[in-house]
Amino acid sequence: MAPNTRRFLFGSALVVAAGLCTGLVAYYSGVLPSRQVVRGELAFIPADVAAVAYADVRQIMDSEFRQRLRSALPAAGSEKDRMLEATGIDIERDIDAVVAGLQGDGTPGGIAILRGRFDRSRIEAAALQHGAVEEQYGGYAMLVGRPHTFDDGTSSHRLAPSVAFLGDGLLGLGDADELRRAIDVSVSGESLSAAPDMMRLIDDVSGTGDAWFVARVARMTRQPGLPEQVQNQLAGVEWLAASANIDRSVRGRVRAEARDDRSAEDLRAVVNGAVAAARLFAGQDQRVTAALNSLQASGSGRQVELAFELPPSLLELLEARAAAAMSPGPAAGH
Amino acid sequence: MEQATPRPGAGPAGTGVLAASMRVFDLSLGRMLWSRRTIFTALVAGLPVVVALVLRTLLAFEVPVMQGGVTGPVVFGLMFWGFVVRFAIPVLAVFYGTALIADEVEDRTITYLFTRPIPRASVVLGKYLAYLVCATSVLLPAVVLTWLLLAPIDGALAASFPDLGVDLVIVVVGFVAYGALFAAVGTIFDRPLLFGLLFVFGWENLALALPGQLRRASVAHYLQGLVPHAMPADTPLDVLQRAMTGAPGVLECALGLGLVTVVGLLIAARVVSNREYVLEH
């Protein structure tokens, strides 16, 4: 082989190897640590949950979009104060990330695992003030709230809102029985890691946005109160995964995995029809039109994807609407 | 006046096909790599890199070119699907594959190859391997560079890295299958380039767009089935997407591409072994 040829092939291999090494370094240093952190929380989520959601609360709270949303909707501040008063947790300062597991099948409740820096004495004081009692379960301290009955219209459920201190910087919120079960599955290994289908989708979406959501659609659609039309439309969908990046704008991606190719084709038709209808009825507002134009449907085989972007200009519209709602109406008698 | 090449056949015994192929590969690689064809290859392969560079430059100057929820990995996916898989791989394979034997005939140098004490099939195999190394050594770095430039735009290198691995495998597999097919075409037809281009831009597009099982008679059907990126909608490619409903599974793709490769190489080797090349002066 001539030296020139050898040099060319070496250079070519070097570029490919450098690119692959860069990707490998990014993959192992960028994705895996965050996945491992999330996996710490996922260890407390039972394998049979219907849906799992994650939010990088710190990133979202610091985002420009959230700052503008806060000024557009000042009412959100009162929710934060209510949460602080009820639980002793300051959403804006204490929480870094949250992972939630939802039961589905018409069962209310679920649990949320919060990672952050929590003032235990403040949380205990707030809980005890609301009648909670201290309990030790599986080596973890719990504050079990007073049970109350919850009626969803079809049946009544008894829930005891509770808090569990699950280790350094981890806090569990939810019904007492659910939290006890979370502690059990973290020991027995029957957590989400034992659900390969769910983990496949979680691996796909984790690391792609500040917030993500993965759901077994069949179990989510059995929730009472969900309109029958929506249930019918989602009947052919097996999995739903969504992720969003929140910074100046919100860029998101929703992915549905249908049961078969026919269902996927039907869903694509529904999505394309809905997008077209939304564009038709959007009116003349440029800001709404810009958001609708960002909708991009794609997919092949059993996959259906919808990408979207909520631009900052949409918040201007929201701000204008909020200002109009706050302003005093025309005086009586005029 | 005509000069006939030596008697056709499998070549003298004593030299193994593999060893002879490696010798032909060694001789052909340099010639192939430093030919004018490689300039064309570099231009084709460099196009997505240039587009990626332009995008990065525009973004550096805060020109709003990435709107509507489109991110760098999405653009890379579209470029890979639309340009690399549907254009660069088949076109480069046509240009190299059809010329493996045709160039030697045109240059009247095939006589020298066939007078060597090696099986004729090893000439095809050696040149085919040289084409594979030549084509992949130009296109693979271009795909990697494009990915490095585009993936970080509103995306993450880490998240799209697994797809890049699949993309690189697809490039190699695409060259393997298309190259074998066009190597066979180059040995059978008098105007192989024309036939190859008609196949890529005519038959393959038609077969993919028509309903029914006709698409199974195209290489693109199996190659596209391996592409991890979602196909775009609301564009002319949407037509193809609908046609691709019921995309083949990985096993079917591997079988289809494997069959094309094996049959293509066997035909090329058989034709070259049995054909008597008459060189016109």
Question: What brief labels describe this structure?
Answer:
heterodimer, A: 334 residues, twelve-stranded antiparallel sheet, 13 helices, B: 281 residues, mainly alpha, 11 helices, globular
Describe this structure in words.
The complex is a heterodimer of chains A (334) and B (281). The termini of chain A are far apart. Chain A is 47% helix and 27% strand. The mean pLDDT of chain A is 78. Chain A has helices spanning 3-42, 57-62, 64-72, 76-87, 91-94, 120-129, 176-188, 196-205, 217-220, 228-233, 261-280, 286-293, 312-326; strands at 51-55, 95-104, 107-116, 133-137, 140-144, 148-151, 156-159, 161-165, 170-175, 211-216, 237-246, 250-258, 296-298, 303-310. Chain A has 13 helices and 14 strands. Chain B contains eleven helices and two strands, in the order βαααααααααααβ. Chain B has helices at residues 17-33, 36-60, 72-97, 99-106, 110-114, 120-150, 157-188, 192-209, 219-224, 237-243, 250-274; strands at 2-4, 278-280. In chain B, strands 1-2 form a two-stranded antiparallel sheet. In chain B, helix 3 crosses helix 8 and helix 7 (157-188) packs parallel to helix 11. Chain B starts with a strand and ends with a strand. Mean pLDDT of chain B is 79; it is low at 1-14 and 232-245. Chain A binds chain B through residues 1-2, 4-5, 8-9, 12-13, 15-16, 18-20, 22-24, 26-27, 29-31, 207-208, 245, 251-253, 261, 264-265, 268, 272, 293-301, 303, 305, 307-309, and chain B through 26, 29-30, 33-34, 67-71, 74, 133, 137-138, 140-141, 144-145, 147-148, 154-159, 161-162, 164-165, 168, 230-234, 241, 244-247.
